[in-house]
């Protein structure tokens, strides 16, 4: 009698009416046979509930990303595997070099180019003639093919990872601030007789940014510190290399990257923007202060005031 009662109360599978079952979905409580149930964190769910849960999860994830959250790096950038800014920067430097080499009709002596002469970082030209663009254009000029090749190889090796971490806009900001930081250091402290060019200031900024990023991600910083130490040692030993330009770029790049990766999530963009603007304002202030000190009389007492035959 009990077996007859049990068979009478036995339900049939919602999807297979010809199959009797005593099992139910823990979510919708519909009867289901073992074939129509899937193991869940709590009990078993039927195939319809599993499909519905997946659709809801995808919809929530899409809404979350659309709102600006999810799949972000520590700097707030959208996760990506595509590098764009670094190749563009390399291309710009290469194009500028080709133009200067064509004008000078020499690959190794491209500094004879008029474009090169008008774009290098020469402090008297900035202070006396007001040629402020030299603070930026000098970062895209290189003395010969070897100088260009070494800098662009370094940019390719270091810039890709930092760009993926920071994102295109933040990475561009760090690069340009570092470039300007190196130029400001040279303009402020370097000898008036020296003419400087090269992307090294920006590259040291990228290197400083890599160090900050490694520390933020709690990775082994020894290799990066070693690379920085070796490069600074070379900068000290070789007189033709601008140590001040390297140090200026390194400091500014590290500070700018620190603002990018350590900014709190809730006020990330505002804090990153504020620090970038403050760094830019500080450098502009330093340049204006130095410019006020570099009077024409003072410069002429140090330099031959662009006399004929003087090399910039």
The strand count comes to 6
Give the helix level as a range of percent.
55-70%
Low confidence ranges: 1-8, 306-312
Task: Write the H/E string, N to C.
Answer: HEEEEHHHEHHHHEHHHHH
The geometry reads as elongated
**Number of discrete helical segments:** 13
CATH level 3 topology of the largest domain: Rhomboid-like fold
Give the CATH H-level superfamily of the largest domain: Rhomboid-like
* Main CATH class of the largest domain: Mainly Alpha
Radius of gyration, whole Å: 31 Å
Q: On the 0-100 scale, what is the average pLDDT?
A: 88
Q: Report the portion of residues in β strands.
A: under 5%
Reported for the largest beta sheet, the result is:
2 strands, antiparallel
Which strand order spans the largest sheet, edge to edge or round the barrel?
1-2
Structural class: mainly alpha
Shape-level CATH architecture of the largest domain: Up-down Bundle
Structurally, how many domains make up the residues? Answer: 2
Distance between the termini: 110 Å
Give the key terms.
312 residues; mainly alpha; Rhomboid-like fold; 2 domains; two-stranded antiparallel sheet; two-stranded antiparallel ribbon; 13 helices; 6 strands; 63% helix; elongated; disordered N terminus
